[in-house]
């Protein structure tokens, strides 16, 4: 049997459903094998940003192994930004790249480079397969490593002559899966419970590990027992805590002064799988005030105590570990829970009243649009959010992020990921509405993903909040208080002259385009897109002012 068929057999036995790819000469034997392959589907992206973003979306939303196949050094190079995002999100992806044949490697042929070294900083394991005989062990190991907590991308470089070589009786081996429900150390859990009981005003930060562990019931029971507000981690990605729960407080700001304001008055920080604390810029102020006690539970030991000492440091799976901790602190929040709920409700009511007060404005403000979309969103929808200035810390108050697999957004901060991710997610969940909320600037990094939506008839609704520029960068430039702030001039942050013609862009890629510049038009366009079950791009002109 030839290497190309052996590779597909191995991937099939690892449970792989899709290979997201963009082919070149080094992948041609594999593409040839797909002519007779009917178990795994090859999904074409028109560039590697799209390919890697799709694999990321699929892997995050399912927790299953995604495979992407890139073309030699330039293909891997193009994918690196999205591989960075996938690594930050811990997405279990087997990244493969076709390599030039081993017999000419030494001559440094076109498109060749040291692929394993290129990928290594962003992957848990990175290796170039050197013979067909090595391939089964390499695929088995790579798949296991990607899916083992903390999950994440791995990389294999596969020279073309491995795919064309033949082997008669190669032992393909079997998959290995390490059980994921690791319980934390009981002594440390008991120590954490003591800290929580002694705390006067604890606060909980929730992160991706909660959603990955499907631990909503467990974190809700814990938060209610402790009687503490729950915020999502700074680069909030998943719905780590349901945004419609009365103890939901919002997302943690990504700038330390604002974060310190959230932390004011709290004597204990309990991180349930949240990273402490990804900031988007240096401010010269530490995220936590000195002496703040920290309880940290995560399956990722690297994150525990990484920047701030954890007084009680528990390595374990959230779903498996939290019930024990909850049992030990039962009732300790009874005296304060109602007061906290009332305070959070008042903050939310004020926010919503402010949003309603903006509802009549034209050009539309983003927040009333988001609130409307939140009202129209079907309960089983999956949102992929890349809104920047149009979303910031309030988006989940307006568009509910409820189920652990219902929301994905910007874990790594490399923009252009949302439309590709949505394609991968829609392939995994064909029956569920998938909605992208994107800035105009972000969408342009991977607009070619629209073609994939059209080609495979993936009914993703892509909503573009078009303020014709990089508004968040203007806001941040103004904040540094230099020439831009003095003159209200921002260099290279407008997308005008020409403005992007999103209707033509949609049409060029085979996607229906609709413009909606009033709330009524947004409602009509969104409902029509949901009903049509066809990929649709809705462009909404929103406020440009800072
Ligand atoms: C790959 C990548 N390139 C550049 C940036 C820097 N960047 C951050 S936000 C932003 C602009 C986003 O514009 P848009 O999506 O229109 O959102 P807006 O700020 O207008 O709300 C840019 C260029 C980035 N984060 N990632
Ligand atoms: Mg913009």
Automatic annotation (TrEMBL):
Q: Which Pfam families match?
A: TPP_enzyme_C, TPP_enzyme_M, TPP_enzyme_N
Which residues are the signal sequence here? none
Which CDD domains does this chain map to?
Answer: TPP_BFDC, TPP_PYR_POX_like
Q: What is one Gene Ontology biological process annotated in the Swiss-Prot or TrEMBL record? A: carboxylic acid metabolic process
Keywords associated with the record: Thiamine pyrophosphate
**Where is each Thiamine pyrophosphate enzyme N-terminal TPP-binding domain found?**
1-101
Give the protein family: Belongs to the TPP enzyme family.
Q: What is the recorded name of this protein?
A: Benzoylformate decarboxylase
Q: What species is this protein from?
A: Sandarakinorhabdus glacialis
């Amino acid at each position: 049997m030839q290497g190309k068929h052996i590779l597909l057999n191995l991937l099939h036995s690892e449970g792989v459903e899709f290979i997201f790819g963009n082919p070149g000469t080094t992948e041609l034997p594999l593409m040839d094998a797909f002519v007779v392959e009917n178990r795994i589907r090859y999904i074409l992206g028109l560039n590697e940003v799209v390919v890697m973003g799709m694999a990321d979306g699929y892997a995050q939303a399912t927790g299953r192994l995604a495979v992407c196949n890139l073309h030699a050094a330039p293909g891997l190079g193009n994918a690196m930004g999205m591989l960075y995002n996938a690594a930050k999100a811990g997405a279990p992806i087997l990244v493969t790249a076709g390599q030039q044949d081993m017999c000419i490697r030494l001559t440094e042929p076109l498109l060749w480079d040291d692929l394993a070294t290129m990928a290594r900083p962003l992957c848990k394991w990175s290796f170039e397969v050197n013979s067909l005989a090595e391939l089964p062990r390499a695929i088995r190991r790579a798949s296991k490593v990607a899916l083992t907590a903390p999950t994440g991308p791995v990389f294999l470089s596969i020279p073309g002559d491995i795919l064309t070589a033949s082997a008669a009786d190669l032992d393909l081996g079997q998959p290995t899966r390490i059980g994921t429900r690791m319980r934390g150390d009981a002594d440390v859990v008991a120590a954490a419970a003591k800290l929580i009981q002694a705390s006067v005003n604890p606060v909980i930060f929730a992160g991706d590990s909660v959603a990955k562990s499907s631990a909503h019931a467990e974190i809700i029971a814990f938060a209610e027992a402790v009687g503490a507000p729950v915020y999502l981690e700074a680069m909030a990605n998943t719905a780590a805590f349901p945004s419609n729960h009365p103890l939901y407080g919002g997302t943690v700001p990504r700038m330390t002064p604002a974060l310190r304001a959230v932390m004011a008055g709290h004597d204990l920080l309990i991180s349930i799988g949240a990273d402490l604390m990804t900031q988007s810029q240096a401010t010269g102020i530490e995220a936590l005030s000195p002496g703040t006690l920290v309880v940290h539970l995560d399956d990722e030991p690297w994150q525990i105590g990484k920047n701030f000492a954890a007084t009680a440091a528990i390595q374990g799976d959230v779903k498996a570990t939290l019930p024990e901790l909850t049992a030990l602190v039962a009732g300790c929040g009874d005296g304060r829970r109602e007061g906290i709920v009332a305070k959070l409700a008042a903050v939310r009511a004020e926010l919503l009243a402010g949003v309603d007060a903006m509802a009549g404005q034209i050009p539309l403000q983003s927040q009333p649009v988001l609130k409307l979309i939140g009202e129209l969103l079907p309960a089983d929808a999956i949102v992929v959010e890349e809104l920047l200035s149009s979303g910031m810390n309030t988006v989940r108050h307006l568009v509910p992020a409820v189920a652990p697999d219902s929301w994905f957004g910007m874990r790594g901060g490399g923009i252009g990921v949302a439309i590709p991710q949505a394609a991968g997610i829609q392939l995994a969940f064909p029956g569920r509405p998938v909605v992208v909320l994107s800035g105009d600037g972000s969408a342009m990094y991977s607009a070619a993903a629209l073609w994939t939506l059209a080609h495979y008839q993936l009914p993703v609704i892509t909503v573009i909040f078009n303020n014709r520029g990089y508004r968040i960068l203007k806001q941040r430039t103004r904040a540094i208080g230099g020439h831009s702030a003095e003159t209200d001039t921002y260099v290279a942050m407008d997308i005008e002259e020409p403005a992007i013609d999103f209707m033509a862009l949609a049409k060029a890629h085979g996607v229906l385009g609709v413009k909606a510049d009033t709330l009524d038009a947004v409602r009509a366009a969104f409902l029509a897109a949901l009903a049509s079950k066809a990929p649709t791009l809705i462009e909404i002109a929103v406020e440009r002012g800072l």
